[in-house]
């Protein structure tokens, strides 16, 4: 037997490994090495199971010979990673008519009949693949039920129930091996991250009954609460039961520790309880993980059947990892590796309670995580009115634009009919931590009637209460039970360790003092992108902005911009102060000007009144500014060159803010970034203008200051021509949102409409606005970085598009030698943990 490579008796010294026999077999060996009372076990390797699945006959003799003649057996799956699952366990193999008679004498007829009946049913369904309904007519209990079950089996299977333990075991093993290679099982485990060719091992174990005379039963125990990760012995125990029966909600099941809800194992069987606790603590320390112990008690004696990693919420995962490290059981690096970065997202926002009932009425793209309940409002003014009454509201729009930002600030969540992962609502939502679902085209939006209608015809009006789940994209009728964000000490501890390990920096995209404060709270290493246009969305500023756009001459524009200057200066001063010497990268004005103009008749009328112009003038001017393709039109640096007054005002505001914020020697590190560059001359012109303003401010204020000027690489040409652009800059920051848009020729605002079709049909592996396209956009990043560095060694390289918060994209940037990534403030913790894991 020891020489038979197909089957291995699990002993302390046998050759068993996760990669050959699976996690369960390896764990059982570890338990044996701890001298825990584990029943006799034989492991079948991945190769063996694979051959059986392909039709080879299992070598059952070598398995069966390892067990006492009368023993019943069970078979359980053992995949490499226990989280990948596997076919369900089959218990009580070997039960037959003769053993029924024998067991009836030792454990009583009822218990023996229960075991046999249950085995026949599980064999019929899982192995012989018969219809589960065939046992519906079985009535009564004990021997009567057993006889009916045997008859039903014979009728349906057209043969008697097999009596030989060998035959039964061979059939069980074959059926489990085949189940693993089936298509649905493969898809299921691939969804959990398993490779397509993941192997399955099997463990065959001697049954401990948990039924019969004396104290018998089974249960599970763990030392922490799965929801919070706090130390707390939890689990259930059911007398006269097997497997995981105790967890099936049987009212007779005992709690483990004293509990007001009912009697406990601690009270009923104190010795067994203490033994189990000792075993579980030993497993925690020696297996270096919080384990759930599956046990059976047979005539008062405790047996350990299995140990699996405790299932855990995201919050518990963080607390468990940090506590194990603090207890010296694992290293800090290991603690960092044990938490999946994406899980942190759940901790940073309110979430719908996983146990809550969900009345889902629609679905869109999950664009900004977190969930909120509120009454529906259909424009920003209503949102602000709602907020001023202290009422939670959800802002519903076809899509959002600059005018909706104030409404978004007032709302608890935003829901749009159109848009994709980098559309306006999505970007702003993530920036301010506002739950957001976009592209919810499964519902009909009627802005005029102020209704949204679900596919099945349910109509929701303004004022109706709904819940938006930006983590899943679901839209729910009514309120749902929520779970609060969990930024507890364990989270903070893990983040501090992450910063110690990471070797690529993480900055935040922050537009307002509030964003900057969030970024600081999450320990961002600076601001990597401040989109200054978002500062003009305030009601008061919007009107001034519109006046500037309508001014006819350069002097007229300058006069209006004078009024915006102190506002911008105050914004920047606040940002510099909040960031306390950490770099603040300010991007000069980027969007097309007409984004600031009202498109609807009532807005245009208001504007005409505010400017004292005839309405026809306003309409005509707006019409004249219309572009066929505004994202490729007069925006970014093009505006900086053709309407230079805006950049001059912004540069002055930045420089004056540097002087103000650095009074009394407080450090300021300002960076100015030029958007949408495609040619060297653009940089030369803007740089010259900005340097002139700097000199003027230094002369006026009588102080010197330093600043860094850089370019945002958002067009393919800027990446390709990086060698001639880089010599003029201190940094290149890749704006991968626009770069993706322009590389694919794919509108970031419209792609949401067909992206899911494209992904489903395998045209794109994933939405390239969400996960960086390594092959195409990535090649431009690498080219631009290489060319930029060759021309200007020491130039700072970064990514500030939405991809900056994505763990795979961070890995790409790190491999390409980038200095930092910048992402929405609420994604900073995810990015920091991902960065740390890459460096470990
Ligand atoms: C980008 O294009 O990647 C970027 C960060 O700028 P924005 O999203 O503001 O266009
Ligand atoms: Mg851009």
TrEMBL record:
Cofactor: Mg(2+)
Binding site for Mg(2+): 714, 738
InterPro entries tied to this protein: PEP-util_enz_mobile_dom, PEP_util_C, Phosphohistidine_dom_sf, Pyruvate_phosphate_dikinase, Pyrv/PenolPyrv_kinase-like_dom, Pyrv_kinase-like_dom_sf
EC number in record: 2.7.9.1
Annotated catalytic residues: 424, 800
Domain PEP-utilising enzyme C-terminal, first and last residues per copy: 489-838
Highest taxon, organism lineage: Bacteria
Residue span, PEP-utilising enzyme mobile domain: 392-473
Keyword terms, alphabetized: Kinase, Magnesium, Metal-binding, Pyruvate, Transferase
Enzyme class (EC, first level): transferase
Gene Ontology MF, one: metal ion binding
Alphabetized Gene3D superfamilies for the sequence: ATP-grasp fold, B domain (3.30.470.20), Phosphoenolpyruvate-binding domains (3.20.20.60), Phosphohistidine domain (3.50.30.10), Pyruvate Phosphate Dikinase, domain 2 (1.10.189.10)
Binding site for substrate: 531, 587, 714, 735-738
Bilayer-spanning residue ranges: none
Signal sequence region: none
Physiological role: Catalyzes the reversible phosphorylation of pyruvate and phosphate.
Family the entry assigns: Belongs to the PEP-utilizing enzyme family.
Protein name: Pyruvate, phosphate dikinase
């Amino acid at each position: 037997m020891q020489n038979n490579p197909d089957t291995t008796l699990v002993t302390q010294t046998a050759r068993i490994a996760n990669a050959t026999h699976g996690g369960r077999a390896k764990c059982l060996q570890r338990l044996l090495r701890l001298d825990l009372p584990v029943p006799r076990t034989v492991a079948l390797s991945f190769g063996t199971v694979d051959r059986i699945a392909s039709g080879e006959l299992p070598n059952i003799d070598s398995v069966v010979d390892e067990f006492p003649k009368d023993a019943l057996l069970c078979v359980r799956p053992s995949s490499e990673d226990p989280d990948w699952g596997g076919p369900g366990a089959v218990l009580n193999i070997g039960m037959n008519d003769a053993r029924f008679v024998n067991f009836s004498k030792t454990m009583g007829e009822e218990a023996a009949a229960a075991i046999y009946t249950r085995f026949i049913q599980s064999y019929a369904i899982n192995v012989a693949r018969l219809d589960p309904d065939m046992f519906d007519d079985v009535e009564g209990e004990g021997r009567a039920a057993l006889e009916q079950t045997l008859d039903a089996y014979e009728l349906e299977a057209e043969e008697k129930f097999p009596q030989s333990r060998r035959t039964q075991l061979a059939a069980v093993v074959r059926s489990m091996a085949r189940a693993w290679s089936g298509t649905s099982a493969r898809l299921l485990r691939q969804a959990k991250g398993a490779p397509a060719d993941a192997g399955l091992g099997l463990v065959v174990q001697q049954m401990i009954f948990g039924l019969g005379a004396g104290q018998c039963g089974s249960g599970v125990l763990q030392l922490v609460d799965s929801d919070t990760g706090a130390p707390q012995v939890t689990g259930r125990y059911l007398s006269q039961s097997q497997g995981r029966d105790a967890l099936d909600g049987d009212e007779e099941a005992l709690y483990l520790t004293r509990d007001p809800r009912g009697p406990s194992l601690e009270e009923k069987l104190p010795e067994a309880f203490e033994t189990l606790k000792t075993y579980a603590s030993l497993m925690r320390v020696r297996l270096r993980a919080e384990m759930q112990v599956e046990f059976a008690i047979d005539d008062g004696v405790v047996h350990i059947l299995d140990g699996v990693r405790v299932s855990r919420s995201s919050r518990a995962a963080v607390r468990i990892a940090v506590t194990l490290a603090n207890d010296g059981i694992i290293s800090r690096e290991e603690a960092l590796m044990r938490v999946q970065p994406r899980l942190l997202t759940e901790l940073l926002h309110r979430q719908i309670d996983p146990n809550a009932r969900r009345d889902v009425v629609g679905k869109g793209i999950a664009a900004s995580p977190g969930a909120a309940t509120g009454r529906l409002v259909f424009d920003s003014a209503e949102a602000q009115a709602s907020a001023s009454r202290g009422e939670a509201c959800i802002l519903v729009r076809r899509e959002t634009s600059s005018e909706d930002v104030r409404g978004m600030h007032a709302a608890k969540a935003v829901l749009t009919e159109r848009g994709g992962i980098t559309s306006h609502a999505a970007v702003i939502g993530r920036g301010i931590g506002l739950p957001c679902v976009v592209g919810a085209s499964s519902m009909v939006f009627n802005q005029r009637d102020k209704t949204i209608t679900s596919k099945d015809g349910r109509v929701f009006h303004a004022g109706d209460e709904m819940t938006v789940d930006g983590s899943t994209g679901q839209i729910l009728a009514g309120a749902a039970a929520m779970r609060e964000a969990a930024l507890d000490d364990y989270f903070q501890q893990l983040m501090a360790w992450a910063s110690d390990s990471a070797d690529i920096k993480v900055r935040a995209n922050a537009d307002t003092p509030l964003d900057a404060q969030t970024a600081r709270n999450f320990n961002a290493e600076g601001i990597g992108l401040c989109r200054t246009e978002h500062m003009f969305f305030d009601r008061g500023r919007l009107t001034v902005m519109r006046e500037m756009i309508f001014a006819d001459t350069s002097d007229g524009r300058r006069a209006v911009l004078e009024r915006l200057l102190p506002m911008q200066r105050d914004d920047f001063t606040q940002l510099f102060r909040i960031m306390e010497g950490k770099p603040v990268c300010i991007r000069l004005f980027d969007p097309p000007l007409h984004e600031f103009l009202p498109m609807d008749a009532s807005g245009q009328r208001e504007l005409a009144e505010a400017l004292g112009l005839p309405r026809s003038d306003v309409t005509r001017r707006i019409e004249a500014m219309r572009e066929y393709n505004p994202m490729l039109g007069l925006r970014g640096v093009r505006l900086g060159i053709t309407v230079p007054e805006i950049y001059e005002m912004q540069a002055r505001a930045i420089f004056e803010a540097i002087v103000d914020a650095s009074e009394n020697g407080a450090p300021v590190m300002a960076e100015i970034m030029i958007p949408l560059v495609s040619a060297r001359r653009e940089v030369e012109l803007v740089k010259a203008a900005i340097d002139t303003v700097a000199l003027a401010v230094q002369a006026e204020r009588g102080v010197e200051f330093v600043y860094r000027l850089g370019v945002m690489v958002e067009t393919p040409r800027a990446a390709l021509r990086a060698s001639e652009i880089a010599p003029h800059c201190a940094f290149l920051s890749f704006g991968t949102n626009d770069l993706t848009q322009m590389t694919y020729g794919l509108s970031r605002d419209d792609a949401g409409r067909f992206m899911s079709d494209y992904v489903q049909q395998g045209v794109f592996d994933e939405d390239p606005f969400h996960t960086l396209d390594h092959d195409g956009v990535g090649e431009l990043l690498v080219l631009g970085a290489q060319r930029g560095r060759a021309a200007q060694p020491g130039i700072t390289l970064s990514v500030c598009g939405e991809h900056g918060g994505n763990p795979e994209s961070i890995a790409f940037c790190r491999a390409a030698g980038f200095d930092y990534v910048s992402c929405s403030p609420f994604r900073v913790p995810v990015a920091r943990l991902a960065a740390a894991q890459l460096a470990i």
